[in-house]
Amino acid sequence: MREVGIGIAGFGTVGGGVLSILRRHAGDIEARLGARIVVKRIALRDPLRARAVDVAPGLLTTRVDDLVEDPAIEVVVELMGGVEESFRLVSAALSRGQHVVTANKALLAARGDEIFRLARARSVDVYYEAAVCGGVPIIRTLRESLASDRINALTGIVNGTTNFILTAMAERGEAIGPVLAEAQRLGYAEADPTLDVSGGDAAQKLCVLAQLAFGARLRPAEVLTEGIMGLSPEDFRWAREFGYTLKLLAVARRCGPAADDPRGVDQIEARVHPAFIPEGSLLAGVRGAMNAVVLRSEALGASMLYGQGAGAMPTGSAVVSDIIDLTRNILAGSPGRVPLPPEEPLVSLRPHAEIRCAYYLHFSVKDEPGVLARIATTLAGRGISVAAVQQREPPEAGAPVPLVIVTHEAREADLVEAISEIGRHASTLRPTRLIRIESV
Ligand SMILES: NC(=O)c1ccc[n+]([C@@H]2O[C@H](COP(=O)([O-])OP(=O)(O)OC[C@H]3O[C@@H](n4cnc5c(N)ncnc54)[C@H](OP(=O)(O)O)[C@@H]3O)[C@@H](O)[C@H]2O)c1
Fold first, then answer.
1. Is 205 a catalytic residue?
2. Residue 326 and residue 258 share a domain
3. Do 109 and 182 sit in the same domain of this protein?
4. Atom of ligand 1 nearest to the CA of 44
5. Residue nearest to atom 15 of ligand 1 (CA)
6. 109 and 59 both lie in a single domain
């Protein structure tokens, strides 16, 4: 039986999952492939640390270059994380004509262009299903299943840590501090959760998805990114009052060319932020650490992928599926069968000031006549129309009164200007809270 040699760089959570699956499903994989996948080398940093999966010590190395230099290794599987060292490994492997599988969204978001260019030049494959939403096959869906369709919008819950936190806050009415501490205790959040709670991880994933869905070329820093640390139990109470739930969404949406663009190139909005979504909507039922992506495409309409976005086995299964697909290409002598993202961007980024959506605005104002009228007039002056208003009694005499307004769709720049002007009203006592509303 033909053997295909692979080298795995990284023997942590995902590396361990990959090895267990390759071992457990070896018979099925061989039967499906008509070939055997053989792990030739595994690179790690600390060869003395105990591992979840036993391997022959002779397979282990602390030199990632051993994977690149071994002529028996046809596929390098990068599961180390980080950008610099993993880029060095991946580019060295591609330059030598080895195919690459990676689960590393940070690497792809930062240096994907160079990696794809190198792969094209050397006619080798790069597979990266596990880089976004772990075990959920969103990359394959965008690359293959919807290759015939034109995607108009992609809206996802792509970070399990923040979805776990927001679900617990919504269901238990607790503040973010204790819920985050619980997520860390249960292993859903890292000791340093910054990348997740800031929205940065979701922005990296959105860059990878937007490249496939729209042919965009985005850097995470270009994505409008707001995290969840500013959310309070009060926001969840108001969400319920208006029939919404609160999620951290990654949104990329096609919105046609800019009015002054003679070439007529479509623009996309690209943003990651907490959003109110209707209680009965597709993403509202995505609880805990689960991930989901809703696609809206011209031919298929709405479709949704849902599943576990992290963990050794779900993520490992996506990596092994990539290895199998890649092995098929090797056996058929047809690398490049599934094209990489286009070299030149097909869309440009719409400036964030031009984003259009509906908004929840929470004002804290003096308890006096005329306040609502003044705010409504300021909003109307910028073309922002009000869909609903709720006002509460002050919790105690003289305390600020919560006044909540839900707007119809408006332009972000107009809204920001209106809020800034309202902030200067003598009756406004605290900064206004703004949460965008999405109808997913
Ligand atoms: N965990 C998930 O659920 C998940 C989901 C989707 C995608 N991913 C992605 O998958 C990748 C791996 O994540 P993970 O959670 O498995 O990470 P992890 O548990 O921290 O494992 C990283 C592994 O890489 C090894 N390593 C790091 N730097 C190295 C170097 N310079 N040379 C040799 N080995 C090195 C480490 O060695 P030691 O063990 O000796 O320290 C460790 O075995 C990341 O890109 C991550 O974003 C993870």
1. yes
2. no
3. no
4. 34
5. 13
6. yes
Counting from 1 in the atom list of ligand 1, the atom nearest the Cα of 81 is 45
Whole-number pLDDT of residue 337: 86
Determine which helix (DSSP H) or strand (DSSP E) holds 387, and give its type and residue range: strand 386-391
pLDDT at position 55: 94
Look at residue 273 and tell me if it is in a domain: yes
Looking at the fold, whether 90 and 235 belong to one and the same domain comes out as no
- Please state, in angstroms and rounded to a whole number, the distance separating the CA atoms of residues 206 and 153: 12
Per-residue confidence (pLDDT) for residue 414, from 0 to 100:
98
Residue 342 in any domain: the answer is no
Count of domains forming the chain? 3
* Residue 378 domain boundaries: 352-437
pLDDT for the residue numbered 290? 97
| Domain final residue pick, 252, 275, 308 | 308
Query: Taking the mean position of all CA atoms in its chain, how far away is CA 180?
Result: 19
Cα of 11 to ligand 1 centre, how many Å? 7
Q: Does one domain contain both 289 and 170? A: yes
- CB of 128 within 6 A of ligand 1: the answer is no
**CATH number (domain holding residue 260):** 3.30.360.10
pLDDT for res 398: 79
The token pair that represents 54 in the structure block = 């036993």
Check whether residue 289 and residue 145 sit in a common domain: yes
What 3-state class would DSSP assign to 422? helix
Q: By the 8 A CB rule, do 329 and 314 touch?
A: no
For residue 294, the CA-to-ligand 1 centroid distance in Å is: 28
Residue nearest to atom 34 of ligand 1 (CA): 44
* For ligand 1, atom 12: residue with the closest CA: 79
CA pair distance 137, 192, nearest whole angstrom = 28
Category of 40 on φ-ψ map: left (φ > 0), alpha (ψ -120 to 50) or beta = alpha
Please give the DSSP secondary-structure letter assigned to residue 315: H
- Within the chain, which residues score under 50 in pLDDT? none
Instruction: Please tell me whether residues 266 and 376 are part of one structural domain.
Output: no
* pTM passes above 0.70: yes
Does residue 33's CB lie within 6 angstroms of at least one atom of ligand 1?
no
How far, in Å, CA of 178 to CA of 184, rounded?
10
